Batch of 4 targets.
Target 1
Amino acid sequence: MRLDKYISNATDLSRTDAKRIIKNGEVAIDDEIVTNPAQKIAPDQTVAIEGSVISMAKSRYFMMNKPAGVVSVTKDNHNPTAIGLMYEHRSDELQIAGRLDIDTTGLLLITDDGKWNHRLTSPRSDCAKIYEVGLAEPIGADYAAALAKGVLLEGEKHLCLPAHMEQIDDNHLTLSIAEGKYHQVKRMFAALGNHVASLHRFQVGGITLDTELEPGEYRPLTDLEIASIQ
Ligand code: URA
């Protein structure tokens, strides 16, 4: 990246101001004064303005174990929000990547990287979301085949993409879906004549909910987890 762009990204200075201070000899790369605004910076170099090192704010990525009763929006006048449970600077820049209903628990991904969020949530993303589902009525013998074929949700014209289920017991199963339509899992089981009594997401793509996280707790994602969303 060019030196003037790096400075305007990492500070409040405009690109014009950045050019001015560079030309004034106020900027050093690895302790050497540089006066060319177009000078390129390598990732391992340090940039200082009048002796103070500056750095680009890195994007932030978190997973939360969302408790029931918490909403996955940034602001809400009636219910606690997931972002409100976090102790982070500039929390107004954080976005939720793939919402969960107020009564759904489990893996919630939060970031300030809009591109990463889009890769995860765009309709073309084929990222699998895996849920543990508790049903009010026993699982029907035809469910696995119907889900694999694609069910038709009320109000929709097209079938859902094929989904994969694995039965745990009479009323519980894991369900893997590739889409993220509004209330998708609840509507899929409504289409099969059942009712979702509990819903817990434990995996999104290559990211699995950390079992060390108590409900309401969160942690930064590892580099591997971040890179797993392509
Ligand atoms: N599907 C739902 O119906 N609710 C959720 O919270 C997530 C997926």
Target 2
Amino acid sequence: MRAPESAKVRSLAGRANPLRDARDRRLPRVPEPCALVVFGVTGDLARKKLLPAIYDLANRGLLPANFVLLGFARRDWGHGDFEDLAKQAAKDHARTPWREATWSRLAGNVRFVPGSFDDDDAFDRLADALHELSDSHGIQGNAAFYLSVPPAAFPTVLKQMQRTRMADNEASGGWRRVVVEKPFGHDLHSARELNELVDSVFTPDDVFRIDHYLGKETVQNILALRFANMLFEPVWNSNCVDSVQITMAEDVGIGTRAGFYDETGAARDVLQNHLFQLLALTAMEEPVEFSAEAIQIEKLKVLRAVKPPADMQRYAVRGQYDQGWLAGERAAGYRQEKDVPADSTTETYAAVRLSVETRRWAGVPFYLRTGKRLPRRVTEIALSFRCAPHLPFTATDTAELGHNQLVIRVQPDEGVTLKFGSKVPGSTMEVRDVAMDFLYGESFTESSPEAYERLVLDVLIGDATLFPRNGEVEASWLVVDPLEEFWADQQPAMYRAGEWGPKEADDMLASDGRRWRRP
Ligand code: BG6
């Protein structure tokens, strides 16, 4: 489709510049007038991520002048209370500098509707408020609903929206979208139920399932690295790759989230979503174009080819942190954390070996692991290459040569490292590993937006490229369900806070003649 002449950016000479038209993705994208309705504004996610992200977007000039932030919560709040909470949240957690002028503009368009999820009157008032905002603030009937609420509350909220026709594009005269936070369901069955419900209330294209890892710059860079370059793709397969390790480690414990976490555990909290999405981007085939649909087709194909280990006893390990030491401080064990039952068997660590049954990846193990209270916060994807088939050097010359590795550092120290052998200066032919590093901070002056900044903006624009679809979610549960069944009546293996997980996870790799990376 050709961009209309008027939308083209004119050069100084007044001629349209064909390289910079309305489709130019380097130009800032600004949503149409709209409201963002946040359910659960007092929760951790809203205060630490969402409200700050909205302020950051406003600060970067990426929100339309007719933008309204509408909070909904069970609070007996008077005028200005929600505004104060949002301001404090933005001040405490925003990425960009504080500007009073930005806040005053935003604050003029902040609204609050009190009520609980089972209160019909409250939802009627919310529907009326949205209606009035079309007149008073020119939102043209456009609204996105962010469900920042416990998964158990999804059905009630969705049914209220159905009852009040808030989800109805036609009735509203604009667009209506919904944002659902992970975990999407508890297993395949509940995920299907939830998906059916959401898709019956909203038009399926208007449902945005958030996996915030996809909003990270370094995660999007996996696609750039693989498909914008010639260098990597020819070796990105089982001919050259020996194994892949995907790690998401955190040094923090569960903090104040016992209620959520003890019901969920590491496999459902992180493995089923964040790690599976990283695996999908690493293993997928090249999409025919960079569009939401084309990328989702490839991700779904590869996720359907992921298989759980046949030998779970050996290749599926879950653990729980015990008390220990981290960064010189004593850390409590999981069972001693506030509100965690003293006999909880919930896992805070999960590691598994998966296979991707495609021609490209046949025989290449994908080792995935995630855990809390590990020595440090790090997320990375490491491709370890096969050894050279023949080394014309003596064994002692290459004693310190390991596998070539390509490591995508998702966070922190965002960047990419390539590890390969090099001659040590001197009169002998000694070969040792060296590393070549790309660091975002050194190559780019602009700092990366927060994942939620990017994703909230995409929802308001209606760009679904970075959001998993139903099929992806269900394909992941198909792999995770058998793992959960296997673990259901087992005690988790214990590891001390500050260690890299339980010994059983090391044994798992040792039995394959490999070792976990120590990032
Ligand atoms: C969330 C999990 O999805 O991701 C949390 O629920 C986890 O348990 C968090 O701490 C980690 O996110 P990030 O972006 O800090 O790696």
Target 3
Amino acid sequence: MSVCWNDKAGTFHPDSAADYLPLRQLRCLQLQRLQAVVKRAYERVEHFRQRLDSVGVKPEDIRELEDVRFLPFTDKNDLRDTYPYGLFASPMSDIVRLHASSGTTGKPIVVGYTQQDMEVWKNVMKRTFLSVGLHQNDIIQNAFGYGLFTGGLGAHYGAEALGATVVPTSGGNTDRQIMVMRDFGVTAMCATPSYFVHIIETAEDMGLDLRSLPLRVGVFGAEPWTEPMRHYIEEKAGIKAYDIYGLSEIIGPGVATECVVQDGLHIHEDHFLAEIVDPVTGEVLPDGEEGELVLTTLSKEAMPIIRYRTHDITRLIPETCPCGRTIRRMARVSRRTDDMFIVRGVNVFPAQIEAALLRAERNLPHYQIILSRKGGLDQMEVQVEVTKEMLGDTISELENLQKRFAKAIEDVVGIRAVVTLVEPQSIARSQGKAKRVIDTRKEDQL
Ligand code: DLL
């Protein structure tokens, strides 16, 4: 049986001990793990061996934590080029789980976990829940999608490890989500923030005031959101809303989480080494400066990842947190350095849309992606210019084409888009790079 007691700002739990390690001990642990993970990657993954050899670095050259900067970066293209299992450092017989996330073009990227990796994932998710003040008496409704997306199962196993009661609703079916939330006495909700806003608005339409329910905590992540959105959610639902961050390539959710102070996300530094680099030069920036987050897994067996360019922009917060945790915080991620956007929690690259359109029509027409938010739900419209040749087609041929585009997009990206055929030359041409994405999801629209 584990014991809980209050610290200055929240609860301290023995299973969160790694959050509070003395800094010297934490850095020492990180170095030992970094040395081991680089050795493992070098010895077992040809891709990493070649990369390290190409810059003349051997695992033994990592003598202190700062030496991590001698190592070459990894990015999504490395996962794409080695699809599906080329970065695995464990035999398939040791892999107990696979997940996948969007690649930059047609194919997803695949990530694998050993039993030991699953233990780590459970542990960091359990610590995430403890950080936001949840415990074994909570009833946690998990509306992150179950499936290839890491959100659903990642949060699920963490909540079970906590000893809480998990209600695995997955995403969608909003009326039922609200019924479950009310009837099951749910006290905490996991979801993408935009989906929870949709839940709030649907509940309002149903005449239900969420403030009258026992719900007290929201655990939100998988997409950027803002302070005004937090205030809106907290006020409308009568809860505390927390930001959690993670990415499939590193583990899934569980990389970083807010604590009850709600001022930055604590990185689970005993498992993930964080650096901030200049997105253009790749040069490491000092703590406090904003740049691109680069992460190295310190304990992953199946798929160790060295210096992963997340493309997420943030900064490390050097000051210690009033909650007493020693693991460093990072600021909220508000934007990315690349053209990836997130619709209803699903990562999408414009190049995927392009690949899908090309599947349906050999000559790629001019297109534009319009993102909007209605009733809290993200909408994706893909406007495709018909060509003069297509104009000769009958209405039913055009309708067919529209359907083929929509189907191809759903097949490639996994979510539905509204496809609108527009007249030739009606999409604005830009002087330089084509502006493929128009995002009208403003904070005030929530
Ligand atoms: O979104 C894992 C996750 C699930 C995190 C549930 C939190 C909760 P991917 O699908 O691989 O993994 O997408 C990772 O999503 O690089 C960020 O750009 C974005 N992202 C994730 N969490 C946040 C957040 C999951 N709290 C990509 N704020 C990341 C802003 C986020 N962006």
Target 4
Amino acid sequence: MRTHSIAIIGAGPAGYFAAQALQTLQTEQLKFKIDMIERLPTPWGLVRSGVAPDHPKIKSVSKVFEKIATTEGFRLFGNVELGKDISLSELEEIYDAVVIATGSSVGRKLGIPGEDLANSISAAQFVPWYNAHPDFKDLEVDLSGRVAVVIGAGNVAIDVARMLALDPKELDPTDTAQYALEQLHKSAIRQVHLFGRRGAEHAAFTSPELRELPKLEFTDVFFDEGEISAAQQRASSTGELPRDLKTNLEAMAAISKADKKGVDRRLSLHFLSTPLEIRGQGRVEEIVFGINEVKGGKVVATGKTKSIKCDLVISAISYQCLELPGLVYESGKVKNTDGRIDQSNSYVVGWAKRGPTGVIGTNKSDSSEVIKLLISNLKSPKKGLDLRKILNSRKITFVSQKGWEQINNAEVAAGEVLGKPRVKITDKQEMLGFAG
Ligand code: NAP
């Protein structure tokens, strides 16, 4: 029997699904010891700090992660940072293979004048802020104005727009960060405008996210009926519509025609608008858009502009990788061939490999393919040093699976008394205290 040691860097969905693939592909002759290394004291990546708090069902995948983590041969090393506490070359030396699963955490920039004004922020900051990520708990978000603009026509933009537009009492039974919930309760924002730069037929939303918008109890949602029917005509003029696009456009059309509740919280979604400039004296006051049209199937600028007075701008225009030492990046992703990094014993999975696309489940097949490639390239097992001993010798406090379970239990217990799934701890030292 051969036992190979594999390090997985990053405890998000792609990392757990890589571990699951290793566990599934074990045989009597081939076993794996898996060490998962995570920068934060807490695992689960975007399931903890990305998924919107009002989407608890999506978070139930964490049960799968915990099953993987409590399977024999798996160890968690939380609070250990690649490049600071241990280098990639050291890990490549110790382990038979290393899997990078560090995601894409940096928000893409609009690259327009005024983007750096106060209260112009990226969804890459705002989302982890409302999700209690320790690195973003002190983000300055001013919700004292009435109008917010969200840029982008993807699911992150929808999440952000919904979080700003809903009545925060809908968030009371969720695990939204306590500080964010308090601020959202005081929020004066009543109008949220989301802008996509192309047509409704090009939007990256998925239908379940669209279909839940009219279910918001205290918010009216608006699409322009003419804009959506023009998009439907353009899209169907080229032949039969793909099923996803058809259901997306139908969901938008249904909302555009639906009766409104007449409440003061409004979420309006607009298309064919490219942000050109954010204006204001030191802080956001107005945003200017170039108006586009679709001509011959292409989105082109009309040369006309429009502007809207606003108090907050959040751009949700996709992500790129935070560059880590020892890795080469290309187009915002780790340079790789089918997941393998430069003929080495290192591999990459998830958003760090393919870019920020797909839903959580997409990572399952993606990680599984890379792990099959990894296994096919394995040589004789090494007798590497034990990571636990190395970290101890460096006096690095790491969080084991048991330590994480103690943090988890403390959060769940704090939530129970308030009728919430958990109250997330936001201070790293406090987390380490619970982890013992
Ligand atoms: P996304 O789906 O790629 O959408 C990005 C949006 O930003 C697109 O509409 C894009 O427009 C727009 N954009 C890009 N550059 C722009 C610019 N310079 N100016 C204006 N608009 C610009 O990315 P995402 O929303 O960050 O989501 C990432 C992934 O996570 C997606 O696969 C998404 O489905 C997934 N996700 C899923 C859920 C869920 O299942 N509930 C929730 C959140 C995220 P163009 O198309 O014109 O480039």
